[in-house]
């Protein structure tokens, strides 16, 4: 009887002892910042804060000469004088200016200039799967912060359909004097877009607040509709279905 009890206890203890040769299941979270990418370099012209606080509204960069020297160039910023918005997509520069409360003029205008600007030459775009939980701008910012190292700077784009977007363009009168952000935005015009196919160009950086992003954001975004009737600085977004791509160096 004692022998039977001993054998049963040996079998039980043996079954409860971990097998050191077996694969272990880790309960530690897997880092999402493991991907190694060589981002396209970012070019910054002047700083947003100098425009907003010191009233430096004249063009610090002109694009008729810049675009002749670059290929696959992308960028964004306000129009000189804070009288519109600019967006460069693959060497084509779009300018938007105010027409009325419910319309704007979007045209190709390579001779334009900007008081501050951020741009990048992007030869390759890498598709990144966008989480279904990313529906707006703050969601997108948090997604990028979780996915990439906080020291990263890069251009990115979203293409697809939106349910809603709020965009604005600057519209200061000639000779306006600016000494604060409130004065800089005095002529701002806002537009509301619904159910549009669109492309969004963005720049991500945690180190450039007041340079090319606002003090409360790590993103600067401009949206242009597929029909090219609308283009401006993106303030609010509700994504329907969009694809995300990150700009890589040539």
Verbal overview:
It is a single chain. By secondary structure, the chain is an alpha+beta fold. It has one domain: Hypothetical protein, similar to alpha- acetolactate decarboxylase, domain 2 (60s Ribosomal Protein L30, Chain: A). It has 5 helices and 13 strands. It has helices at 2-16, 48-54, 63-69, 137-147, 181-184; strands spanning 43-45, 61-62, 73-78, 85-89, 92-100, 103-108, 113-114, 117-121, 124-128, 154-169, 189-204, 219-225, 231-248. The strands form 3 sheets. It has a 6-stranded antiparallel β-sheet with strand order 1-8-3-4-5-6, with no helix packed on it. Strands 9, 10, 11, 12 and 13 form a 5-stranded antiparallel β-sheet that branches. The longest helix has 15 residues, at 2-16. Residues 1-32 have low confidence and may be disordered.
């Amino acid at each position: 009887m004692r022998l039977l009890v001993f054998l049963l206890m040996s079998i039980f203890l043996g079954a409860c002892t971990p097998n050191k040769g077996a694969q272990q299941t880790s309960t530690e979270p897997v880092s999402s910042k493991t991907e190694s990418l060589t981002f396209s370099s970012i070019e910054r012209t002047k700083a947003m804060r100098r425009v907003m606080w010191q009233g430096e509204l004249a063009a610090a960069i002109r694009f008729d000469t810049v675009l002749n020297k670059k290929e696959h160039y992308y960028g964004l910023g306000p129009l000189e004088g804070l009288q519109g918005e600019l967006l460069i997509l693959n060497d084509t520069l779009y300018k938007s200016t105010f027409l009325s409360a419910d319309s704007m003029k979007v045209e190709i205008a390579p001779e334009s200039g900007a008081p501050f600007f951020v741009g990048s030459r992007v030869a390759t775009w890498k598709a990144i799967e966008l989480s279904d939980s990313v529906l707006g701008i703050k969601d997108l910012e948090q997604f990028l912060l979780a996915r990439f190292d906080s020291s990263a700077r890069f251009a990115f784009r979203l293409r697809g359909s939106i349910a809603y977007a709020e965009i604005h363009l600057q519209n200061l009168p000639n000779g306006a004097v600016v000494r604060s952000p409130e004065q800089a935005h005095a002529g701002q015009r806002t537009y509301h877009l619904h159910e549009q196919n669109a492309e969004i160009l963005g720049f991500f950086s945690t180190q450039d607040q007041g340079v090319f992003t606002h003090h409360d954001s790590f993103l600067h975004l401009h949206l242009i509709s597929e029909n090219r009737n609308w283009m401006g600085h993106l303030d609010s977004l509700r994504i329907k279905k969009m694809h995300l791509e990150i700009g890589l160096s040539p």
